[in-house]
Design brief:
Helices cover 12% and strands 54% of the residues. By secondary structure, it is mainly beta. It has four domains: 1-37; 42-119, RNA Polymerase Alpha Subunit, Chain A, domain 2 (Beta Complex), CATH 2.170.120; 129-222, RNA Polymerase Alpha Subunit, Chain A, domain 2 (Beta Complex), CATH 2.170.120.40; 229-316, YbbR-like domain (RNA Polymerase Alpha Subunit, Chain A, domain 2), CATH 2.170.120.40. The termini are far apart. Residues 27-36 have low confidence and may be disordered.
């Protein structure tokens, strides 16, 4: 039967027309044609670019992370198509450290065709992963309890392995173990994290530190203070100025009357009293009380605050 049809010129022509029409519908890129063969186009923005086959000793320092993709396919397949439905990637298998222009490739779901990717090539900056061994530098913060001093600091382990991108690791100047010694008054064993810093003391991040913590042994010594020499002396009110005519001082009382001076023995041998600051009696017409500073010889100190209360009793001159 097929042989008879092929020998019939009219049948062959009709069959050829039908096949041509079907082929045209298949390859046409517009929305006209028979149902089930409609093709339409769409533009998917912000599709994430995946990276494949990057060598284990390399990492991406910089690259374009998203591209836009033009797709076409039957309208029913493009409805609801999202960036996550597309596989857009760059193959980094043959690349080493440096800057590269890499072709962006992609795969789409069944029935959807990727027409174009914008941009079709992206720049990828690849950095080599390197290691570096560094000594740990103890960095002390704060002050120990008064009377104590840090005599020694030991770190265990003393050297640490750093791993990371060469562009980052090259900037590490020191590896600090920051130790807070505030209020320390005895030998201490502390576990502290490590802090890579640049030449300005700023912390550098993005590195793998093995181990990430160290043991710091802080030795503390007590400084025995010399007990100062003590001497008890009277307080003398230092008066200046004159009362108005017809008035006189009846009495002067000071509290405390005596104070204990502390200092070097040789220095205190020459001290027999502690004076108050100047108390001016000019224009005083009646009894008064006043708080006043005590003047302490340089190199000495008092057990109490260097102040005294003075009361001056004033009355008429007795004839």
């Amino acid at each position: 039967m097929i042989d008879r049809l092929l020998q019939n010129n009219t049948a062959v022509k009709i069959l050829s027309i039908i096949l041509a029409f079907i082929l045209w519908l298949y390859i046409a890129g517009d929305t006209t044609g028979a149902p089930g063969f409609d093709l339409t186009r769409d533009f998917i923005r912000g599709v994430t670019v995946e990276t494949y086959n990057l060598a284990g000793n390399l990492e991406i320092a910089d690259m374009v992370e998203e591209v836009d993709v033009a797709v076409q396919g039957p309208s029913e397949r493009l409805v609801g198509l999202t960036p996550d439905d597309l596989e857009i990637y760059v193959d980094l298998g043959e690349l080493r450290g440096g800057e590269h222009q890499v072709k962006v490739r992609g795969n789409a779901p069944y029935g959807v065709e990727i027409e174009n990717i914008y941009p079709s090539q992206i720049q990828v900056v690849i950095d080599e992963i390197i290691t570096r061994q560094m000594e740990v530098t103890p960095q002390l913060e704060g002050e120990p309890v008064e009377g104590y001093v840090i005599s020694d600091v030991q770190v265990e382990p003393e050297t640490i392995l750093l791993e990371g991108a060469s562009r980052i690791l090259v900037n590490v100047e020191e590896l600090w173990a920051v130790v807070n010694i505030s209020e320390i008054e005895e030998d201490s064993d502390l576990t502290v994290p490590l802090k890579p810093v640049d030449d300005t003391g700023e912390e550098i991040t993005g590195l793998e530190i093995t181990p990430s913590e160290v043991e710091v042994f802080v030795s503390v010594d007590y400084l025995e203070k010399e007990v100062p020499f003590e001497k008890e002396v009277p307080v003398e009110v230092n008066i200046e100025g004159e009362l108005p005519e017809g008035l006189e001082i009846k009495s002067i009382e000071v509290e405390p009357e005596r104070v204990v001076l502390l200092g070097d023995e040789e220095l205190l041998e020459e001290v027999n009293k502690v004076k108050t600051a100047v108390l001016d009696l000019s224009d005083k017409e009646e009894t008064f009380s006043q708080e006043i500073e005590l003047e302490v010889l340089q190199g000495t100190s008092l057990e109490i605050e260097p102040r005294a209360s003075v009361m001056v009793v004033i009355g008429p001159v007795e004839e």
